[in-house]
Amino acid sequence: MAGKHLKKKNNLWILFNGKEYCVGLTNEAQEELGDITFANLPKEGQTFKSGEPLIEVEAEKAVNEFASPLSGTISSVNEKINEDINILNDEDEMNAWILSFKEVDPKEFEEI
């Protein structure tokens, strides 16, 4: 999945799949936080500007807020995280997608 369609910003990875921009925690963020115990996720349909608070994560070492890497509307949220928070503790960061954006200016993504 590496290449020009995968970028990282604010300890989040962003993958453009040709339709939406999927977002998840990087391995670095996972390691820094330790075991994640809770995540406060946005709701589908919410709109964010780049830099606004997007996700709050509680872990053994700290509570961290992650800023939105893009401006756009949340098109989907990984509801499985609410059932099994260990998804965010997965060693493979690409398995731990959190949400996806639609209505993103492609230029904003390219400038990351």
UniProtKB/TrEMBL annotation:
The keyword Glycoprotein does not apply. GO terms for cellular component: cytoplasm; glycine cleavage complex. InterPro entries: 2-oxoA_DH_lipoyl-BS (IPR003016), Biotin_lipoyl (IPR000089), GCV_H (IPR002930), GCV_H/Fam206 (IPR033753), Single_hybrid_motif (IPR011053). GO terms for biological process: glycine decarboxylation via glycine cleavage system; protein lipoylation. Residues 20-102 form the Lipoyl-binding domain. Keywords: Lipoyl. Coiled coil: none annotated. It holds the Pfam family GCV_H. Belongs to the GcvH family. This is Glycine cleavage H-protein. It comes from Enterococcus durans.
